[in-house]
Predict the 3D structure of the following.
Amino acid sequence: NAGVTQTPKFQVLKTGQSMTLQCAQDMNHEYMSWYRQDPGMGLRLIHYSVGAGITDQGEVPNGYNVSRSTTEDFPLRLLSAAPSQTSVYFCASRPTGGHEQYFGPGTRLTVT
Amino acid sequence: AQTVTQSQPEMSVQEAETVTLSCTYDTSESDYYLFWYKQPPSRQMILVIRQEAYKQQNATENRFSVNFQKAAKSFSLKISDSQLGDAAMYFCAYGRDMGRRALTFGSGTRLQVQP
């Protein structure tokens, strides 16, 4: 098992550009989520999904879009990047009935 | 809404000594889970230990143990026989038993281990 994988590891964007952060898991987990990590603030939930075709907003959803067409993949889209979206982004998954979340290695995004 | 507070931004411990990291949380629910995650410089989030709120017994994983005080809403992490590899950011996290089940994280404690 590769676990939870994220691509890219690093990305630099200009203000206004769009991009998609990729997240995939091969553990057949129903629940997936995206967090952002900012200095001094821990991780905050952006969006989550409880299964294919079902997504919902977390604490800080503005400026981000998600979809879940398969169990394995949960991409995060930045529609028009802003400097405030400079952060480290983590994808996580959790099995149905379980409580431990498995995290990907993170993507460091810089918006200039 | 649930909140998690880690009041120690930084801690330092001598190698082989014991250190305790503090965490308090606020919730109105009775069933939930608490976690400590370690984040080394590699950035990977690593689960250290978890505690189910319905269990009175404190969780233990090798050199790591917790002091779970449900009434006080306190969940501290004790690291015994500290090793250089324990140096990292440590995050306390709260997870609901029902509903959304996303984690709410504290702001973290940076642990330094002195040789």
